[in-house]
Amino acid sequence: MARYLLIFLVLLLNNIAHSKEELEITADQFTYDKDNTRIYATGDVEIIDKQFKLNAQKVFLNNTSNVLSARDDVTIFNSDGTILKASKIVADQELKNAIMEDNFLYIPSKPFNEKENYLRLAAKKVERRGYYWEKLDNGVFTACEICFNKEKNKFDEPLIQLRARKIIHDKKSFDVKYYDTFVDFKGKSIFYLPYFSHASPLVKRKAGFISPSFLQNHYFGFSTDLPYYIPISDYQDITIKPRFSQKKNPALFVEHRKNFFNGEILSEFSGTIENRKNNGIKEDKKRGHIKSKGKFDLNDNSFIDFQIHRTTDRNYLNTYKYGYQDTLKSFLRIKNHRNFNFFSLESYLFQDLRQKVNQKEIPKVLPRLKIDLNSNKEIDSMNYETRLELINFVRTEGNETKKFFINQNIFYPTLFNDGTLINFGVHLNAGIYHIEKYENPKSGQFEFSEFKSVFYPQFTVELTKPYIKLTKNYKTIIKPQFLFLKSTPNAFKRKIPDESNVNNFDLDYFDLFNRNRLSGNDRADSITRFDYGLSFLKQSILTQVSSKIGLAQSYQMGDHKYLPKNSGINDKFSDILANIEISPSESINLNSFISINKNDFSIRNAYSTLMFNVKETYLSINNINAPAVVENDGTNIIEGKNQFSLAFEQRFSEFWSFTTSSTFDKKDKLKFHDINAKIKYEDECLGLSFNWRRQYTHNPEDPTSNSFLFLFSIKEIMENDI
Predict the structure, then answer these.
(1) What DSSP character marks residue 210?
(2) What is the pLDDT of residues 282-318, one digit of tens each?
(3) What is d(CA 301, CA 586) in angstroms, rounded to the nearest whole number?
(4) Cα 597 → chain centroid
(5) Which long-range CB contacts under 8 A does 673-682 form with residues at least 24 apart?
(6) Nearest to 489 by CA among 535, 546, 557
(7) pTM for the whole structure
(8) Cβ distance 344 to 335 under 8 Å?
(9) How far apart are CA 296 and CA 548, in angstroms?
């Protein structure tokens, strides 16, 4: 049967001159009345409008009353992505007002496991008033996929669904309200609610409760967090999370987010008043924290950022699980970059939460000015780098330092036709210091207020020559590397305070070829040395299979007197350093840095990571093996470490998974830091997780104990990050 196309110009029809909409209609057959005010279309009818496309077998249009009636296999594709199916619909021609029977509405949702996903809303009868209000009689809502059972020759009941006598969908207030509601699990009612509501699936942000979390541990007993989300505007929202517990007073956590045209601010606050006993007397203790950070672009080249991070006491963040860190950092920074030049004005405050650290000795940086000027990096040409730093360290107890330091670097790199690169460098370093209240380790005297200066030049020569071989399947690169550094004894001047703490020195493969292997610029390598190394890379062109091995060592023209005794570079020859990165297949990866004692070839330091990722199984093993940092007088500065971190994840099926992790030390005996285990179920509409954690801690408020955390998430109703 031939198909017919009708451009239905509503503007030309009788009695509806106020409408300016056009409907494009195709069908197998059209029937008109003599006045052309009514049209009856049959056979694969398709109506196309700016807001929707309607398919049906039979459609009746009455242009006098502006009524559209469709039946038999009615499907409407709306411009917002929703799909409506019904057996019968009577509506105005814009579908603003309608009555629908046997209605099924499919609402697009975020994909699950990379598969397209829809929310489903069904009812025996639907009444629509305008674009913004709908009433569903005997309605059902589910976010679950409905599967067809071939054995039973019918669709299975969804895992979770809501059935209600009446459902009101208010698109102005973005609410879905349920009356006389049953919560069904696999078709069986497990819970009844006389009234229930949640945010409309058509809105991305709506005020309401977020899925709660439940925790059981030694300090709180049984506790729960009940978060409530409030969108203030399209660019600002807030989450309020009260905590109620069996043993402690309520606590409140507030999270605020705001976006601006040129930046953003993220803030969190928390607080509680604990009832405590001090010498048998009850007293209230106020506890809490604040963390606020933001960043704003001033123009294309400049920005300002800040952070405020403080807490009332050492143990609060750890006890309340609000993101504990050893050191809390607050700062204000203004930064600018132009071409290769960088400028910054910064100030820092620190709060150290470690038990053995005296907070009064922690420095305040008020302020710090950094200027970094660079020429274009060019071959066979002079390249310049100028580093300027002006900084003021203030302490409640201990020395205070004001410093102006300049570092001028001049490089001349030359690249030969065979790939050989030689880079000559001249480095001039100078600083002026005003030092107060300083215990001078060199003279052993207390210096109340002194001006001091330092100047030391350095000279470097770098040489690299890669050898490359390409085959059909592999790329092979062998690259020897050399660095010669000529320095002066004045570079390591102990009469000046070391604000960068060179005792944290850690020699590794990548630091070996740095001009200054110490942090900061208060102390630098004072010994002339020669670094040499060889790296080997073999990489598959077709896959991720690769092997990379690097070996390096340093020869020094003198002995380091003040670095830790077992740093690995105290003698003429340094330890042998190796860096290993091996991926024998796309599922296995090994990274390891090793420091080998040059005398007996024993391993001094080793930092290793081994990862397996085979189908549904993931395993990660990390090891840090380092000796104690020992001063020349034999005093231990940092304890030795042989620490392991294990992480394992196994996915049993599409929805079920198990993860576990642990961190522990293995010296004379096994010493655990923590053990975690979690089992999780997550499908397209429902999520559940149960987490057990045993933490071994020195926090006196939260000693070694078990914590149990239960989370659940019902999609589009009460979601949570499980």
Answers:
(1) P
(2) 778 899 999 999 999 999 999 999 999 999 998 899 8
(3) 41
(4) 39
(5) 680/656, 680/722, 681/655, 681/656, 682/655, 682/657, 682/713, 682/722
(6) 557
(7) 0.77
(8) yes
(9) 41
